[in-house]
Each structure stands twice: as C-alpha cells, then as structure tokens.
Write a structure and sequence with these properties.
The longest helix has about 45 residues. About 70% of the residues lie in helices and about 0% in strands. The protein contains 20 helices and 2 strands. A two-stranded antiparallel sheet has the order 1-2. It is mostly helical and about 450 residues long. Helix 15 packs antiparallel against helix 17.
C-alpha cells in the first residue's frame, strides 16, 4: 500500500489528469446516452439471443464471420451483458471509458522514461496524449455498446506493441517469453481485432523484420529462434483468422473503374481520414481536407525527427502505430470506396486513426527530452506542433459537447419508438440503423420475451 501511495505521489500530475478526464467522460456519457441498442447489435440480438436461452451458444456461433470481420470477444461481451445486467447497454459504454483510462496508463508508461526533467515539454506531451485517448470525436463508438470492445481492441494492440518492444530490447539469447508473446498475438488477431487485426499483424511483422535487419547490420548477437517463434505466431494467427472466411469483397475494387479516379479517391480519402482524426467530423469536406494536409505534414515531420534522431534505437512504438495507421486507412478506403469521401469522416474511425497523433506525441516527447542537444528554434517548432494537435482535439471535443444533449434526445426517442413500435412504419425505423426493419421488430419481441434492456425494468415494475 505504501508503494502504491508513493507511485501515485511520484506521478501525481498524470493521476490527477486521468482522473479529471475520466470523471468528465463519465459525466458526458451519462448526459448523452440511453439504454438502447443501435446498429449491428440488432443483428446480434436476432442471431444469438433466442438460441442462447434455448439451445445454447457454441464457439462457432461466436467465431462466425460477417464478411471479413470476426468479433468473438465482442459477441461474448454482448452475451455477458445479457447474463449479468439483462442487457444494459450503458454498462458497456461506461466500461469503455474505464478501459480508455487503462490505455492512457500504458501510453504513459511508454512516454515517462523519456523525460529526465519535468519541464513544459513533459506536461504538454502527457496532456495531449491523455486528451487524444479520451477524444470525444469518436462519439459513434463512445456512445454505443461498441465502446467496450473497441476500447479493449486498441488496448490489446498497444499493449502488444509495448511488450514486443520490451522483448526486442534484449533478445540475444533464446527467451521462453517469445512463446507467450506469440500466443498473445494469436489471441489478439483471432479474438479481439476483427479485420483491423490485419493491421496489427502487419505492423508486428514489419518491426520484427526491421529489428532483425538492423541488428544483423550492426553485427549484434541475435537469436533466430526468437524471431521465428514470434513471426510464426503472427502468421498462424492470421491464417486461423482467415480460415473459413469466403467473403473478401471490398467495395467496387473488383469491377471496372478509372485508375486515375481511384487514385484520387485514395489520396483524397486519406486526407479526410487524417483530418477527422484531429478535428472530428463536424466540418465540411473541404475543411477536413485542409486539416488532413496539415496532419499529414505533421506525421512526415515527426517521422523525419524519429529517423534523423535515431529514436528507433530507443523505441519502436511509433513504427508500430504508423504502420497500423497506414494499413487501417488502406482497408477503410478499399471497403468504403463506393460510399464517397464524406463517409470516410465517420467518427467510428477516429479511435483508430488517432493512433497517428499519439505516435506524433510520443516522438515529440522523445525529441524534447534531448534538452541539451535540441536548439531553441527546434523546441519552438515542437511546441508549435503540439499546440496544433492540442487545439485540433479541443475543437473536436467542444463541437461534440455542444451537440451532445441532442444525442440524448435522439436515443430517448428510439426508446419511445420501441415502446410503441406498432405505431411506426418500416421506413420510420431507419434511425435504429439496423440492416433491415424486421431486425428491429423481431428484436423488440425478443427483448420483451426475455425481459432485456428497457423491458426488464418495465416488467419488474409490473
């Protein structure tokens, strides 16, 4: 207990900062959410709940794929919520905020050793890191039951990067931890990540290859067995994930298209994704494109600082995140190329695209820690970049706070519709964002039958 108190005292700034953000996030969630299912959860409800209460659920039910997506942990958490809380979606929403807090702690553990003194750079970098983790720009995830599974997915990715980085710091001899890390890769790829785990796998393989080549070039002692075991874990995980997946269709890539138009879409789409990662999706396409150019330039500057200052000799975390960001953007562009560039600003993508901003902050924190060799002009430039990232994220948060009360009204209206579902036509059920209106009608019947969600409390009162 004494050690815990001492650690909290030594890191009081971070502890206070995270506490404030967590409390603020919980207040925001309480004022913006209601206990109502939306989007894919209508499909989960129709596919799993009746079977769960009658025949029972098998592993194949949880491991079933929807296109290229497999989300067994997400489905398990959905069923666990039903068992423990009679499907209170707000429980998952609040738990997601707590997981964000844990993610911030992992990132803080990555950044803290870089600072030998707690100057202005230390406080700014820690602040923008926490601000980015708790960004309200990804409201489509924060305010829905996806919150827990998406936050948990990013936490496992970042933790995997951290553990891999630690392992590669000293792997001249065979280390049995390689087996455990390899099994962790398999679990994360198959159970946690959905299709996004392909980005996680690619980033890990790239870093393993880069680290091996770097150490061979320097003629440092390496243990081939460590790299083989880790690489096989990633490859086996991807193979296991893709086994049985037959629908790999993505947008309209397979049809006829204008190559120049497609390239323009990919470039413009990349800027839209990057711009929304900083300022949210509340601006026009033109403004998001402008901010996308700005974010892309910041990424390039930080990558230059990372390479020129040989920060890769200290940590690979930024490489992991930049590779993941690149793969993520390519997958989104391929999957949504028929939806138009406006769709690429969807807030659900910000929880992944913000990894690029976190990488920038990590690099700037390492760069600013070199206080004795960094010139004043370069320090000012670093603070200027941090300021842009901070102001952009602040803008996204303020914009969302202004309209958050309307989201509460929106979700409360959905509850009112569920209570009087027969009074509405199929076209009027569009706000539930289900694939088909029948999913909503049948889903409400199942909720009444098994006393789930809002119908649990109503039945108890009766």
């Amino acid at each position: 207990m004494a050690k815990l108190k001492q650690k909290m005292y030594d890191n009081c700034y971070f502890v206070c900062l995270v506490t404030i953000f967590l409390i603020g996030m919980l207040i925001y969630l309480s004022e913006s959410t209601s206990n109502v299912p939306v989007m894919d959860y209508w499909r989960y409800l129709n596919a799993l709940v009746d079977k769960f209460f009658t025949k029972g659920i098998s592993f194949s039910d949880l491991y079933s794929n929807n296109g290229i997506h497999r989300t067994p942990v997400q489905l398990f958490l959905f069923l666990l919520n039903i068992v423990l809380f009679h499907w209170n979606t707000q429980i998952s929403i609040y738990l997601g905020a707590v997981i964000l807090c844990i993610t911030a702690c992992v990132l803080y553990k990555i950044m803290k050793p870089t600072f030998t003194n707690k100057g202005i750079g230390y406080y700014l970098c820690i602040f923008i890191m926490v601000l980015t983790v708790f960004t309200l720009g990804s409201y489509e995830i924060l305010l829905l039951e996806f919150s827990t599974s998406f936050a948990l997915r990013n936490l496992t990715f970042i933790t995997g990067y951290y553990w891999t980085n630690k392992f590669l710091e000293n792997n001249q001899k065979w280390d049995s931890r390689a087996c455990y890390l390899s099994m962790y890769y398999i679990f994360v790829i198959c159970a946690m990540g959905g299709a996004y785990s392909m980005g996680f796998a690619a980033s890990v393989l790239f870093v393993l290859f880069f680290d091996f080549c770097k150490k061979m070039r320097k003629k440092e002692g390496v243990c081939y067995r460590n790299y083989v075991v880790l690489s096989l874990g990633v490859i086996f995980g991807v193979s296991l994930y893709l086994y049985g997946v037959t629908d790999l269709s993505t947008g309209n890539i397979g049809g006829s298209f204008d190559i120049l138009q497609l390239l323009y879409f990919f470039f413009h789409g990349t800027l839209i994704v990057l711009g929304s990662s900083l300022v949210g999706n509340g601006l026009s396409v033109e403004m998001l494109t402008f901010f996308g150019i700005m974010v892309l330039m910041i990424h390039f500057i930080c990558i230059y600082l990372y390479v020129s200052n040989r920060i890769y000799e200290i940590t690979y975390i930024p490489i992991f995140m930049y590779i993941y960001l690149a793969i993520f953007i390519v997958m989104i562009l391929m999957g949504r190329n028929t939806n138009g560039v406006e769709y690429l600003s969807a807030s659900r993508y910000i929880c992944d695209s913000s990894m690029g901003i976190i990488s920038d902050v990590i690099i700037l924190s390492f760069y600013l820690s070199k206080s004795k060799i960094v010139f004043v002009k370069r320090k000012i430039m670093s603070y200027f970049l941090i300021g842009i990232l901070c102001l952009g994220t602040f803008y996204a948060d303020i914009t969302e706070l202004k309209i958050s009360k309307y989201r509460k009204i929106y979700y409360d209206n959905l509850i009112e519709m569920m209570l009087n579902l027969d009074d509405y036509t199929d076209d009027e059920l569009t706000p539930f964002q289900a694939q088909m209106p029948e999913q909503v009608r049948n889903g409400v019947m199942l909720m009444k039958k098994y006393r789930l969600g809002i119908f649990y409390n109503i039945d108890m009162e009766r």
